Amino acid sequence: MRFFAWLVPLFGLLFIVHNYLIFWQDWPGTLALMQSWQDAESAPFSGTLQIQAWSQFASWFALAILVAIYAVRRQDSPLRSDAERLGAIAAFIIRGCFWGLVLIGIFDIVISFLRVEEWLAIFVGEDMAKSLGRPIFRGSYVHYPLLALGLLIALFTRSLGFTWLTLMVVLSEFSIVISRFVYSYEQPFQGDLVRFWYAGLFLFASAYALVTEGHVRVDVLYTNFSKKGKAWANTIGVIILGLPLCWVILITGMWSKGSSLNSPLLSFEIYQQGFGMYVKYLMVGFLVIFAMSMLFQFCAYLLSNIADLSGEAGDEADADTQAPSGSAVTG
How far apart are CA 154 and CA 100, in angstroms? Predict the structure, then answer.
C-alpha cells in the first residue's frame, strides 16, 4: 500500500510534466511512440525526437522502480510517517500557490487599473504598456515569475493561510460596494479579482479541509461506525471515489491540445472585456492544482486509515496525527 500511495500522485506529477513537454515544447510523447510501433506506414522519428520519445517512455518505468525501492527500504517504518510526508507535499503545493495567488492578484489588478486610467505608459513606457496588454506577454513575464516567487516564499514561511485569503476576498468585495455606491466607480477588474481569489480559496483549501475533517458530511451512517468502520469507509471512498476523480480531471482536461484545461492554458485565455484582469487561464489551471494537491492528500489520508486498520500505534487522535500537514497550509 505504501508503494501505491506514493506511485499514484507521483505518476500524476509525471503526467503533468509530460503534458508540458508534449504541448508546450513539442515533444512526441509516449503514446506517439507506441503508435509508431503499431503503424508500419508512419514515418520514423528523427534522432532528437526518438531520444525524447524514449526518454518519456522510460520515465514511467524509472519512476515506478524508484518508488518500489523507496517502499522496500521503508517497509519497517510506520505508515503514518509516509502519510505526513505526502501531506507535507500537498501543503507545500497549496502554500506556494496561495502566495502566487496573492501576488498575481495584487500585481495584475494594479496593471489593469493603470491601463484603464491610461496611466500605465507613464510608468513603464509606451512599448511596455502595449506588451502588458497582450495576454501571452503578461502571463509569461508577470504571472509565471510571480507564481515561481510564491513557491520560493513557501519554502521559507508558513505564516499565512486561507483564513487570510477569506478576509481578502471579503475586503475586495467590500471595496466594490464602496467604489460603486459612494464614488460611482466600477471596473471589470474589480469583480475579476474577487472571482480569482475566491476560486483559489475554494479549490486550494480542499486538501486542508480533507485533512481536518472540514468537509460537510451527510452523516447518516458514518457517525455510528466504529473506528475501524470509519477507516474502512474512508479507505474505500479514497480508492473508489477520491483518486479516480482527480485522475478524471487530469486526463479529460489535459489529454490533447484542445482539451478543456490545455486549450485555455496554451492560449492564455482571458475575459472578453479588454481591461479586466488577465487571469482566466490561471483559474482553469486551478483545477490542475486542485487535482494534484488532492492526489497527495488523498494518498496521505489513505495511509493514515490503513494504519488505523492495521492497529499501528499513534492512532488515538486522527486530528492530532494529521495536524502537521494541515498546519503547513494554514500557518
Answer: 9
